[in-house]
Amino acid sequence: MAPATSSLFVETSTDTSRANATKRVSVKTLVETPGLTSIPSNYSYSTNPNESAGSNPDEDIFPIIDFSLLTSDDPHQRSKTIQDLDRACRDWGFFMLVNHGVSERLMKEVLEGCKEFFNLPVEEKMEFAGRDIWQPIRFGTGVDVKVEKFFFWRDFLKVIVHPQFHFPNKPKGFSEVAREYCKSTREVTTELLKGISKGLGLEECYIEKETNFDAGFQLFAANLYPPCPQPELAIGIPAHTDHSLLTLLIENEIGGLQIQHNGEWFNVNPIPNSFLVNTGDHLEILSNGRYKSVSHRAVVNNTTTRISIAAPHGPSLETAVGPAPELVDGENGRPAVYMPMKFKDYLERLLEGRPCNLDHVRVPVAE
């Protein structure tokens, strides 16, 4: 999950080739400005010299997990799929999930609902604008300049959907579709966590119990990336890891997600109707570093609007997640790598405008 933001101020002017005045506007509104040929200076993203461009990998490089085999009654199929799942989480922190049982119809309807929401008049979307990360429904754009010095090329809708379901009351029917979608992704995630628990050598329901997953914190995070006149100078979301256990993502068949693997960045071209699943910080913590919270980013293009929906699933807010004791053995070279921290405290660092990542809970290494 990217750093929290709600600032809707960007530089714009009547000279759209270079902005110099301030106006309240979303990226979508900015893009619709007649004659826009270059991006405002506060959207210019300076790439780290060590940060390479994304490349297109071989077609079969990304792990693919067949959900129907993970939930199969055949013990041999299930066992093999659990091994594949463990390997995907350990080696990549990412996989494509197919045959997951969530209907293509529902996936298309929820994406269409997002499109309709972002197409609402900006005044209606502004009803949901705010700075508080605990605000149940939050529309925003860019990034809070207290945290970063530039704006992201995206608008977003972030909604807390579990343990209590919230959602905008517009456009008509969106809330009902989103409720069904969020329930479905939660069911899929629950089964994935069971397989991951087994892959770690733990009891099947270990992660569910230890994270109080029944009361777990779940977000619905929709992102709109409009066409950008200078995509090489802008960024949708910079490199980051998610704070969750697992995040499930879908998109409107327009690429833009890149993941980092062994220091290289790869473009992700999803299998149709698949979920893109990545491991988060709290799965790395619980696994004592066996699994890595994968770094990923979103790039933009100059031709087509991309919409993505991320569904991060985390522990309950009051749960402090630490390494599973079964995965810690200090006498045999497997000391605890992380210290427990309450999930709410981990997230609240964002509210305070402070960076929050695994370094803040890492056990110091004795010199």
Describe it for me?
It is built from 9 helices and 16 strands. It is an alpha+beta fold. Helix 3 (75-91) crosses helix 6 and helix 4 (104-118) packs across helix 6. The chain is globular and about 65 Å long. Residues 1-24 have low confidence and may be disordered.
In short:
This protein has 367 residues and is α+β, with helices and mostly antiparallel strands. It has helices at 27-31, 67-70, 75-91, 104-118, 122-125, 174-199, 206-210, 281-286, 343-351; strands at residues 9-12, 21-24, 64-66, 94-98, 137-141, 155-162, 218-225, 237-240, 246-251, 257-261, 264-267, 275-279, 296-298, 306-313, 320-321, 341-342. It is globular, with a radius of gyration of 20 Å.
Write a concise keyword list for the protein shown above.
8-stranded mixed β-sheet, 367 residues, 4-stranded antiparallel β-sheet, 25% helix, alpha+beta, 21% strand
Itemize the secondary structure elements and their pairings.
Blueprint: E1 9-12, E2 21-24, H1 27-31, E3 64-66, H2 67-70, H3 75-91, E4 94-98, H4 104-118, H5 122-125, E5 137-141, E6 155-162, H6 174-199, H7 206-210, E7 218-225, E8 237-240, E9 246-251, E10 257-261, E11 264-267, E12 275-279, H8 281-286, E13 296-298, E14 306-313, E15 320-321, E16 341-342, H9 343-351
Parallel strand pairs: 3-4
Antiparallel strand pairs: 1-2, 4-12, 5-6, 6-7, 7-14, 8-13, 9-12, 9-14, 10-11, 10-13, 15-16
